[in-house]
Amino acid sequence: MLFNSFVFLLGFLPVTYLVFWTLRSASSRYVWLTVTGYVFYGYWDARFCLLMAFSTLVSFTAGLGLLRLPEGSARKLCLIVPIAIDLLLLGFFKYTNFFLQSIHDATGLFGLGLPVPVLQIVLPIGISFYTFHTITYIVDCYRGTIRPTTNLFEFAAYVSLFSQLVAGPIVRFRQIEEDLEHLGVADRRRWLAKGVAFFLWGLLEKVLIADSLAAFVDADLARHETLSTLGAWAAMLGYTFQLYFDFCGYSDMAVGLGFLFGIRIPANFNSPYKALDPADFWRRWHISLSSCLRDYLYIPLGGNRNGELTTVRNLLLTMLIGGIWHGANWTFVIWGGYHGLLLVLYRVSAPVWDHLPRLVRHGGFFILVVVGWVFFRATDVAMAGRLLAAMFVPTRGEMSHHPGFYAVLLFSAWWSMAGPNVWDVLTEYRWKPIHGLAFATVFGACLAVIAGGRQSPFLYFQF
Question: Where are the alpha helices (DSSP H) in 303-380?
Fold first, then answer.
């Protein structure tokens, strides 16, 4: 079920909202959020609801163990066992065929060509995101950052919260614990206007901007071998903005849905294309993931506490793992390593880079980001190589000549690189009657586009 679909907008969401606010107790609302979360998730493939339920039960049980057991080996098992189970499930469904194919390719380099089976494994949508939810919960319980909940449905509602279930943000339990605890006394009207505003802002980003770009970008990249240098740059710039407005749009809709149900979901984007350097970029892009990688991987590895070489190792390892988290493909490994290398180079060059003119830093780093997105978008390393060759070696070929593409491209470039983001505009939002007309206009325009059949799945669903 997509946020940008009639079944969600005109069916699932109104029913879920009305029933939720009819219920009066926190427990009944936990149950309802859990049920609707599983209905939302099961709309794709009901079989995988069992997998999410199993992961939820394992982590909830471990949390109870951490609540009751004193320090010692048994308590450590409550940390290690559920995390191992979650990672094994994620590894099996997401990386088994990647691992087997890599073995085949590696042995082929030595003329062995070891035959390996290709398993027919269907990747459960959103498994990377809810696995992060359960793991961060267990680690925070073990560290004493949060007190484990004893209410199964409160925890199940957190894991299966439909607003952020399949593509994030990665919401830690401690970030919404207070709102969950007070869900029974939440005021429906308190964040209603803000929730509607955030949701429609995100819907506009996805439907009117990202999907409009996708109509051109997908066609161009499908014939990337024929693109000229200008065509390759135009296609990759289009993808750069498509990806941002697609994922940022989803995150903004998730925040809006959270407000509608009395839960404050934190920001996941802060105008990342305004970044002036790699460190700035990762404070702005996919904030929930970068902060999780920092707090649960980079810092436990030692962070920057044990010398420069160790810091370099930790940066590269963290970003490589962040890359492979995105997908079972060497292109994602390269993308993660590329950004790790950019972070390392910035540590060395910061005294010089930070004193360059702002325009040079902004434009120069943006180009580096676009180059990285080549690996992120390419289906394999060969495609990435062909695109980069076309971009940096003068090449004759084709390019889009549709004026609509360049109009949307220029508008999206201004909006993402110089214009305001949703948090700039709506953090202190107050409802005014005139806004009703604006909301209705945006919603009507989005419905018209959806009715035209141009809606598409969110790009981060595949991760």
Answer: 308-326, 330-353, 358-377
